Known about the structure:
The chain is of the alpha/beta class.
Amino acid sequence: xxxxxxxxxxxxxxxxxxIEVLSDLTFEVQRGDYVGLVGPNGSGKSTLIKAILxxxxxxxxxxxxxxxxxxxxKEWDKIGYLPQRIQSFNPHxxxxxxxxxxxxxxxxxxxxxxxxxxxxxxxxRALEMLNIGDxxxxxxxxxxxxxxxxxxxARALVNDPELLILDEPxxxxxxxxxxxxxxxxxxxxxxxxxTVILVTHDIGSVGEYATKLLYIDKKIIFYGSFDxxxxxxxxxxxxxxxxxHIICHKHH
Length: 252
Ligand SMILES: Nc1ncnc2c1ncn2[C@@H]1O[C@H](COP(=O)(O)OP(=O)(O)OP(=O)(O)O)[C@@H](O)[C@H]1O
Ligand SMILES: [Mg+2]
């Protein structure tokens, strides 16, 4: 039986050097949700994601993914993750785009980790979703920032994850690529029931595609559907009425 609560966060608190940056967060993400995670710089979005993924240890509370505490989770191959900042590669970094994307498959495989025909096809499919099939054999370091970003998005998608967590994936993308990326994501969510958590400052797009909004600033300011958000007066105090207007205007 597939679990329908994909992420469950309870009383979560995180500190860096004894300074609290997340305080008492409690929320759930259900299968098929597309959650836009927003909040100002330094509000704790990336920290929250790292805590959900078990990349840092909470000082209070817990996070479960697929119904299991993150410390005992084994289904890593069901999660696609794109961190906020990928180091930029020096031009001589010795990996091709195809090799970088195939790393997204490694967690599914046991040794030997050589790519088979099926793996190659999966990698090519992911590259084509991002319209960079023609870059498969180029060195990653030779590509532009936006092309590299597309390769890393492809890596997060290549395993057909059930949960996709993307931390500001569109920052380096040109407008056309951004639009097509959002429509790929939309399709995966609607047709493939992939659960999506998307961190973004692109509030216009988040209102257009996400089904839920999680707004944090050290604690949860708002979590709910867009309709609730748009009907909620107090939200304009936190968000500014113009930002609220942009989100709600675009939402359909
Ligand atoms: N490794 C770290 N050590 C100490 N403090 C940190 C560390 N990482 C983040 N912080 C602090 O924690 C707070 C939350 O940072 P976080 O990166 O989660 O914010 P964010 O919402 O993702 O911001 P942005 O929109 O700029 O990406 C900030 O005050 C930041 O300075
Ligand atoms: Mg961040």
